[in-house]
Structure formats: C-alpha cells, structure tokens
Write a structure and sequence with these properties.
Layout: E1 5-7, H1 8-15, H2 20-28, E2 32-34, E3 37-38, E4 45-47, E5 53-55, E6 58-60, E7 67-72, E8 76-77, E9 86-87, E10 101-102, E11 111-117, H3 120-127, E12 135-141, H4 147-155, E13 170-175, E14 178-183, H5 190-197, E15 202-210, E16 213-214, E17 224-226, H6 229-232
Parallel strand pairs: 8-9, 11-15
Antiparallel strand pairs: 1-4, 2-3, 2-5, 5-6, 7-11, 7-17, 10-11, 12-14, 12-15, 13-14, 15-16
Length: 237
C-alpha cells in the first residue's frame, strides 16, 4: 500500500473530531460520500491525494501539519493536560487538540514564545541539540548586573550540581537590571541557574525568540496565531 492510500474510517477520524466508532456509525447511516458515491465500508481504501470525501455533504480535507506560536502567560503550564493548572493547549481553540504538542517548554512562571505543532519531525528540529538553536530571553533581575557577571555568562558558568560549564551565551545589556540572553542548551531552569551562578536572581523571564522565529509583538499574553509559511519553513527538514 502506498503512502497516499489509507482506510476510509482512519482517514475521516484523522481529519475530524470524530472517533473511529463514530465514523463507523456515519458510514452505516449513509452520511459519507467518496467522489459523490455513498460509502459504507470502513475498511475501504481511498487515495488521499485524488479522492474526495464528504461527511454530511461537507468535503473534508487531507490533514496538513499545523504550526502555532503562543504568548504564554504566567501560571500556565507547558503540558497537554493538567488537573490543577491551565495548560497552553487550554488556550488553543483548534480541532484535534490531542494531536498537538509543545516544541520546547517554558516554566510555569516564565512568559513568552511557545511553539506548538502536530509535526513530530519539526519539533525535533526545534529541540534537538544538534540544531544548535538559540533561544532568546528577556531577563529582569533583582540586582544590577555587573560587567564581570556578563563576561562570565558569555564564557560559560558552572551550574549547581553540573560538571560541565554552560555553553557560551550571547548577552545584550538593556539597563542595569535587564538583559537579553541567548542560549542554545535547555537545562532545567537554566537561565535562572546561570544568573544565580553569577550572584544574581531572576525576577521575571520572558522568551522572545526561538531560532529566527520571533514572538509576534501583536500577540497579547494568552493569544496565539498560526506560523507564517516562512516561519515554519525555518525548521522544516
């Protein structure tokens, strides 16, 4: 069987919110057409590129990979579900939410850019260390940042309970208590631990960019949009 051919019930379930059992009932009750002809056999195979499938007279399309950016608010967790906290997926109003996942998580109290997709290869490109993808954060500090601290961050610092130094970071000083830091690693609470290693404390952390994908300044906290084609293409194989 070639890759464009798929069982009819599996195809309908993949591009709609219907479960496989619900699809079988639709087929049994004569609510499905393939190329205008009534279809009742869930095991029948269709060609995703050539055949037209309609449910309740509405044509359904072949699934396309989806890519979103979200401006994550505080107290929102990067998880698909959580019994105690709002998740980033709770903020997304899209079909087939269960197929989406987060490409690079943020801590609960960190705000800013989160990428969400149903394309596993794409998210691997975002998160794989081999991609050497820099993430840029705006860091609000409890104390003035010193020149020595900036130099240390640029060279790599020793994190608590870590044997190796962090990889060199890119630092831009905005003012005495605000910096932009770009790192390509993703260790647990890394930015906070890096600033602790140079004797400072992070009051707030906001992610502005992942690679060349910049958080849309028009997005308020909690809002999202689809990535533009040129943005998604930055991490396509």
């Amino acid at each position: 069987m070639n890759k464009t051919t798929i069982r009819l019930d599996k195809y309908i379930a993949s591009v709609t919110d219907y479960s496989r059992n619900e699809v079988k009932r639709l087929l049994k009750n004569d609510h499905v057409r393939v190329n205008g002809i009534p279809a009742s056999n869930p095991a029948a195979h269709i060609n995703q590129q050539e055949d037209t499938v309609a449910v309740y007279e509405q044509v359904i399309d072949a699934p396309q990979a989806r890519y979103f950016m979200l401006n994550k608010p505080r107290e929102t967790v990067c998880a698909t579900e959580d019994s105690e906290h709002t998740t980033v997926l709770d903020l997304i109003d899209e079909p087939n939410l269960h197929k989406l996942h987060i490409a690079g998580r943020l801590d609960k109290d960190t705000t800013g850019l989160v990428l969400i997709t149903d394309d596993g290869q794409w998210s691997h490109q975002v998160t794989s260390p081999r991609s050497e993808c820099f993430k840029r954060y705006r860091v609000y500090l409890a104390q003035d940042i010193t020149d020595d601290a900036i130099t240390a961050l640029k060279q790599g610092v020793q994190l608590h309970n870590e044997k190796k130094l962090t990889l060199p970071a890119h630092i831009d000083k905005i003012d005495n208590t605000t910096i932009l830091i770009s790192i390509q690693e993703g260790k647990y609470h890394q930015v906070k631990r890096m600033l602790a290693a140079v004797g400072n404390h992070v009051e707030h952390l906001h992610r502005e960019a992942v690679g060349k994908i910049e958080l849309d300044k028009e997005l308020e906290l909690g809002q999202y949009r689809e990535l533009h084609h040129h943005e998604a293409a930055l991490f396509l194989p």
